[in-house]
Design goal:
The complex is a heterodimer.
Chain A: E1 4-5, H1 15-19, H2 48-52, E2 58-59, E3 70-72
Antiparallel strand pairs in A: 1-2
Chain B: E1 3-4, E2 8-15, H1 19-30, E3 35-38, E4 55-57, H2 61-64, H3 69-76, H4 86-106, E5 130-132, H5 138-148, E6 152-154, E7 159-164, E8 170-177, E9 184-195, H6 224-231, E10 236-237, E11 243-248, E12 262-264, H7 286-289, H8 293-299, E13 304-307, H9 313-325, H10 329-338, E14 345-355, E15 360-361, E16 374-376, H11 387-406, H12 418-432, H13 442-456, H14 464-481, H15 489-514, E17 537-544, E18 547-554
Parallel strand pairs in B: 1-9, 2-3, 2-9, 3-6, 9-16
Antiparallel strand pairs in B: 4-5, 7-8, 8-9, 10-15, 10-17, 11-14, 12-13, 13-14, 17-18
Classes of the chains: A little secondary structure, B alpha/beta.
């Protein structure tokens, strides 16, 4: 479901849409400041848009089915 | 009807702008060639190295000794070994340190902590062969270096088809420009063509079936180079042998060797024999050596965890640094948001779906395929695999060789070839068909291919009966793919990908039928033994007179 753009921080430079390896943003309409995200389910979680956003306006929200599975770690023991 | 752009011409056309493609373009330009690089997305952040890598297979004489024999034995016995032509590997040894020094001079930190530092993917008391580096910005840096050398980069212009002349020689390629409102065909005449479209993802159902793009390697790499090479008559090799990665279950990412921990069960008992505590120098090799561990433990009712309990704070920092350079900043963000603390939590790992890496186009040590004028780089190759290092060495070498051969070849007009009209017909048909419930979209075709591959050309069970009927099913999907429709540039691109995937799937099944034995993860339940007669022999496939022909060739020792 990622990326999520903070509209108050976004400057409309469209770097994110230009560099996304999966074209998650798709074709952008003219005259719209904050990029549209047309294909959110094709995100690869590579974080390129987060890393390269000059306004630090983007975060990824990971779809629930992709969540890390974790539990309490016992001490590692051969015994 | 597809729009046609004015054809372009160059000495060397590079298909794909990942690490290998950029290195090929750089090397070709350094040899004085005019170079056009066609990239599906944007070379600044595309391919499996998009947001980084933190380890590269490297031989340094001053670290490993003047004789590379021990290093080579260690590498060939590792998870990337087994199906490599050894002349490729010996050449790799002579080149990789030069490429590493080149990257360092361009600003990719190859010894970010001072000395050359080899850690991870390692056995206790054995030579360590993986160089740690800080590759988060490798793609923007290599893009800058390519541009500095005069390379023309066409972003959003995926490569689709190789154009050959009457003698069967490569004379250019057909790409699709996706920068406009609608796709436009871009024909490029070239004296040599380098294929560098990466591995093949999206061939098998992923761990999260509803999230097809949740894959370890870049899901944009969908077999364009392999499919085009086969159609152009190039020989493919090792397509039958399955390979898969492992990592955090459901959060599919590469980089298991960047984790510093111990594979343990729920009780904290180490599963493998290599380490009993988190060790920065070694990692835990169990997941590399025992590829079936996760599936076998699961069948025994045991989940497998990456247990970092007891890790030193500085080693945890080192691991975070590694993950941030391995393209895993998203994973780090997710752990922080979820409150996952590796001092007290452990993360479940599992094996991922198979991909094609080190299984693909057959090329010699000069990266020449069996089609004159056609070169293959790095992850396109079926007879060599070294991941990031392979991209550096054989990317560079493919570009250099393509440029040298371009000097001896005359330019021919690719736009006049019949292949171009066939492409135009195909593109127009996809564009002109009405999208909607009356025609399959790309996702239907891609999902159908994944289903068949997962059940009929599987990791666990392969047999003549399953493979032969699976082949029929894939061929039927290929027919249905001819009825696909798209809605825009984006889905047009995905339609071509789905078509290529169906083509590559057929090749994998045909090659899997040819190998009537069990070997590695190629588990033939109708031939359960490993036939020593097939040791060091590779299955090949090529198209002759429009028909697929499988065969065998010996491994180059």
């Amino acid at each position: 479901m990622p990326p999520v753009i903070d509209k108050t921080k976004c400057t409309g430079c469209r770097t994110c849409a230009a560099i996304c390896p999966l074209d998650v943003f798709g074709r952008q309409s003219a005259g719209i400041r904050v990029p549209e995200i047309r294909y959110p389910d094709e995100c690869w979680h590579c974080n390129a848009c987060v890393l390269d956003c000059p306004a630090q306006a983007i975060r990824l929200r990971f779809p629930v089915p992709t969540m890390l599975l974790y539990t309490d770690a016992p001490a590692i023991s051969d015994g | 009807m597809i729009t046609r752009k004015t054809p372009l011409a160059c000495d060397v056309l590079v298909a794909g702008g990942g690490i290998a493609g950029l290195m090929a373009a750089i090397a070709a330009a350094e040899e004085g060639a005019s170079v056009i690089l066609a990239e599906k997305a944007n070379t600044r952040r595309s391919g499996s190295g998009a947001t980084g890598n933190d380890h590269i297979l490297c031989y340094i004489p001053e670290v490993h000794g003047e004789d590379p024999a021990e290093w080579l034995a260690e590498a060939e016995a590792s998870q990337i070994g087994g199906y490599n032509d050894m002349d490729m590997f010996r050449f790799y040894v002579t080149q990789i340190f030069d490429r590493v020094k080149q990257w360092d001079s361009w600003g990719i930190p190859m010894r970010p902590h001072g000395d050359w530092e080899f850690n991870g993917h390692a056995k206790p008391d054995h030579m360590r062969i993986w160089l740690k580096y800080a590759g988060q910005n490798q793609k923007p840096i290599l893009t800058r270096e390519a541009l500095r050398r005069g390379v023309t980069i066409l972003n959003r212009t995926p490569f689709h088809e190789i154009v050959t002349n009457r003698r069967g020689e490569a004379i250019g390629g057909v790409c699709v420009d996706l920068n406009g409102e609608a796709p436009a065909m871009q024909v490029i005449s070239a004296r040599s063509v380098v294929l560098a479209t990466g591995h093949t993802s999206r061939l098998y159902t992923p761990k999260t079936p509803a999230w097809m793009f949740n894959t370890a390697n870049c899901p944009a790499c969908s077999g364009a180079g392999r499919a085009a090479a086969y159609r152009a008559g190039a020989r493919m090799v090792n397509m039958d042998l399955p390979m898969h990665h492992a990592g955090p279950k459901y959060f599919t990412r590469c980089g298991k060797a960047t984790w510093i921990g111990v594979y343990s069960g729920l009780d904290g008992k180490p599963i493998g024999p290599f380490v009993t505590k988190p060790t920065k120098e070694l990692g835990d090799l169990t997941g590399d050596i025992w590829m079936g561990m996760f599936a076998q433990k699961y069948k025994a009712g045991e989940p497998v965890f990456m247990n970092c309990r007891g890790i030193a704070e500085e080693d945890l920092d080192y691991m975070r640094w590694g993950l941030s350079n391995e393209g895993n900043t998203g994973l780090l963000d997710h752990m922080e948001e979820e409150g996952i603390d590796l001092h007290r939590h452990m993360v479940e790992f599992h094996q991922y779906e198979p991909i094609l890496i080190g299984r693909g186009i057959d090329a010699n040590v000069r990266c020449e395929t069996t089609v004159p004028g056609l070169y293959a780089a790095s992850e396109e190759l079926g007879n060599f695999r070294a991941d990031m290092g392979g991209a550096a060495v054989f990317g560079y070498e493919s570009g250099r060789q393509a440029a040298l051969s371009a000097r001896t070849r005359t330019e021919e007009d690719a736009a006049a070839a019949g292949t171009v009209e066939q492409c135009a017909g195909l593109y127009s048909a996809i564009l002109d068909r009405e999208a909607g419930p009356g025609a399959p979209d790309w996702r239907e075709i891609n999902t159908a291919v994944q289903q068949i591959m997962t059940e009929y050309c599987a990791l666990e069970v392969r047999s003549e009966r399953l493979l032969s009927v699976g082949l029929q099913y894939i061929q039927r999907i290929q027919q249905k793919a001819e009825q696909m429709a798209c809605t825009d540039c984006h889905t047009f691109m995905r339609c071509l990908e789905a078509r290529d995937l169906a083509q590559v799937a057929e090749l994998v099944i045909r090659c899997a039928r040819e190998r009537r034995e069990t070997r590695g993860k190629h588990n033939r339940v109708d031939y359960t033994f490993t036939n020593p007669m097939n040791n060091d022999k590779f299955v090949t496939i090529r198209q002759e007179d429009g028909r697929p022909v499988t065969g065998w060739r010996s491994k180059n020792k």
